Amino acid sequence: MTAAELNHEIRRKGSYLCVGLDSDPGKIPVHLNREAHPVFAFNRAIIDATHDLAVAYKPNLAFYEAMGTEGMEQLEMTVDHIRSVDPNLFIIADAKRGDIGNTADQYARAFFIRYDFDAITLSPYMGRDSIEPFLQFTGKWAILLALTSNPGANDFQMQRFSDGEPLYEKVLRESATWGTHDNMMFVVGATRPEYLRRIRKIVPEHFLLVPGVGAQGGSLEMVLENGKSTHGGLLINNSRGIIFAGSGSDFAEKARGAAERMTKGM
Amino acid sequence: MTAAELNHEIRRKGSYLCVGLDSDPGKIPVHLNREAHPVFAFNRAIIDATHDLAVAYKPNLAFYEAMGTEGMEQLEMTVDHIRSVDPNLFIIADAKRGDIGNTADQYARAFFIRYDFDAITLSPYMGRDSIEPFLQFTGKWAILLALTSNPGANDFQMQRFSDGEPLYEKVLRESATWGTHDNMMFVVGATRPEYLRRIRKIVPEHFLLVPGVGAQGGSLEMVLENGKSTHGGLLINNSRGIIFAGSGSDFAEKARGAAERMTKGM
Q: How many residue contacts between A and B have a Cβ separation below 8 Å?
């Protein structure tokens, strides 16, 4: 998928919404445990109830890997279901990987080919040769952590180098030269909207994936005001605020309600 | 496993060797493809041939994940086999994860409990709250990337902050305060032995996991000279140089030969 195609979907649906499928098996409605594949049954219901409101889904790999082979099978079923519902939905593997050539190439093949994800989140710590293997696949995307929404972002990301530039800005400036705005995005937490304006100056056209609206307390209005590019260029993620909006048999309707409230503001 | 127990094994075996199980299914001897579980059959033969020479094994998760559920099953079988051969072998999940509390906790449970690994490699980019969940499991370890062996280490890790300290040193200094030398190690590439002496001043007692000897060109002698702590404190990894030393029916003997040559220098 190209940036233009993704921006087209955003305009068509009037939505920047990315639904985070952090589908913790311990938190899904208990009645689903009668199903052969409870997590997939949960995801399917959420997807069926929200796909006209969302432009992207982001399974958080940790929750699937924690279930072992069973979990990975349900991840595969989830990606297939999203594809069958609407082939224009953008699917992100929230994996936060980062390793060198040989290994990076294995991960790229795993996520882009075996599982047919559109994008994968990556840590920039190991530098250019840990990212480039992900940029070799036409229509696929590397999403680099830049400024994250957690308190630990202060430990290293916000620290300034001798030229006055904080680490996260150097990551943006350097890594933007490795790819294009058609194969690279950046993660910028919604809990730091005051930085979004600065970030937009460094990467005016790149897509930003913005987590932290909702459960983590980020403001949607501030994100839109400071984070939009000329053509759109935002994916705003909400995970628990949508998928766990309800916990009874009406969980999917509740999720739709939460997604509607969020996209109304877009 | 405690640091004292691991150092005891190192002295007992006269070896710092960690064998990296980067068991690419495209590179294992072709005759193994007749087996029901080719990658596991490969790993089992390597483990059986080297376990008296090695103190640790390090499956590289990318290669198993790239095979989907089949791969994860063979990973589980591999960990079980190592445990059954010698319960004192140290098993590292080379996963290079790094995510916040909620997700980090899922990964910790996946690798420490479901798969029974002793340790997991982590990226420090997201800071303290992305590491701490891994420090809550008695006898288990977080292994943080500090200075890696690839060219991309120059992009960010080697860059100096305004106080003159490069990022990798800040990572060592800061994160060493989050845990103890009984639950935290650091990755330092063998391709940069001149830095090992400096690193030993910052973390005199912590274990260092040193990749890059062999295929990547690092010198074993330099690593030993500059990297040892008072009690040992080193795990020196070799992956392809050992597991792919041969490619015929004698691949396991060849692997043993390569491991013997390497441990002789220890």
A: 179
Asked if residue B51 lies in contact with residue B86, where contact means CB atoms within 8 angstroms, the answer is yes
Chain B residues in contact with A148 by the CB 8 A cut-off are: 100, 125-126
Which residue numbers of A are catalytic?
Answer: 96
| A142, B153, B156 from A181: Cα distances, Å | 10, 24, 21
Average pLDDT score over residue span B204-233: 90
d(CA B73, CA B55): 24
Please tell me the total number of residues recorded for chain A in this structure: 266
Residues of chain B with Cβ-Cβ distance to A149 below 8 Å are 100
B254 is catalytic: no
pTM of the model: 0.95
| Section B109-114 average pLDDT | 90
Query: What is the span of the domain harbouring residue A50?
Result: 3-264
Q: b or e along A60-95 (b: 16 or more beta carbons within 10 Å of the residue's beta carbon)? A: bbbbbbbbbbbbbbbbbbbbebbeeeeeebbbbbbb
Nearest Cα to A46, choosing from A61, A68, A29? A29
Measured at the alpha carbon of residue A149, what is the angle toward residues A144 and A155, in degrees to the nearest 5? 85
Q: How many CB atoms lie within 10 A of CB A229?
A: 17
We report the CATH number of the domain holding residue A60 as: 3.20.20.70
Q: Which of residues 14-43 of B touch A (CB under 8 A)?
A: 22, 24
User: How many domains does chain A fold into?
Assistant: 1
Residues forming a β-bridge with A210: A236
> Which pLDDT value is given to residue B194?
84
For residues B106 and A63, what is the distance between their CA atoms, to the nearest angstrom? 6
Q: What angle do CA A68, A71, A75 make, to 5 degrees?
A: 140
In whole angstroms, give the CA distance from residue A60 to residue A116: 15
Most B-contacting residue of A99, A120, A209 (CB-CB within 10 A), to test interface:
A99
Measure CB to CB from residue B73 to each of A69, A149, A171 and give the nearest one.
A69
Q: A7 Cβ partners below 8 Å, 6+ apart?
A: A231, A232, A233
